[in-house]
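Table S2 (continued). Query chain:
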Amino acid sequence: MNIQLIYNNTLNYLKMKTITPLKMVVILVMSMLSTKSISQNYDFTLIQNSDYSFTVAAVSQFDSGGFAPITQSYGFVLVLPDGVTITIDQVFPAGTSETITPIPGANVAGLDPSMADKDLFLITTDTSGGTLSAHGSGEVIPLVSITVNGTPTSGEIRLLENDSNLASHPAINGSLDAFMQVDITDDSMVNFTNEFNIISGTKSYSFDTLSTEEVEAQVLDVSLYPNPAQDEVFLRGNINALIGIEIYDINGKRMLSQIESFERIDVSQLEAAVYLLKLESNTGSITTIKLVKE
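Corresponding output:
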């Protein structure tokens, strides 16, 4: 930032206006603030790798240039249905050790009644000064990969937000807050500060959709292939009975709708993931088939 240039521009402005010295200082400070760069920190997000495999990742909100940020520790809380457990498969960066602290939902239901039928897992790490790769703004940086055990078919996996009823409760006193201690300044000094911003992007995934069996739509006498698919899928059988097709992601967002030409469905624009294909017949019945896009 060229402070002298800002100051000179301010003086030129004052020559044309009658402004007190105090207002001149305010103008100068506001000019400096207006040039401040976007905050340098990280969001957290949840990524589904496959049915019951997930990764908690950081999303950079700045460009680190050629500097590889140095980490000290990070942590977060995962919320799952009561009785469901997790296994940590991998932690990043290299050399990181983790601690899992299970918290029965019943123990905190007095602070947040919605936790009565859930279990929480506080995951904290010691990164031993490990470094993140130099990154650009918006880059996704994997932190912890986990597997959800027991193939649950109801409920969801969710990252607990710092402003949630539970985490923000005075009795918790910040002990369940997500955080990321990291040095992001390339100044030859190590200064760890909490650079966590918010949980953004995907915060949760529902297990309900994972219980859908991979079966043919026998009621309609319609079959789907190939499955898994890449660019397109085909329906064969009694497709004359269909009046509509919709494809949803596992969070319930409609990704595609088709009301004619049911023999072929173009899925080339969908990202690799698990989807639900809903078939509606002229009798009003709806049949759902799980579709895997590779």
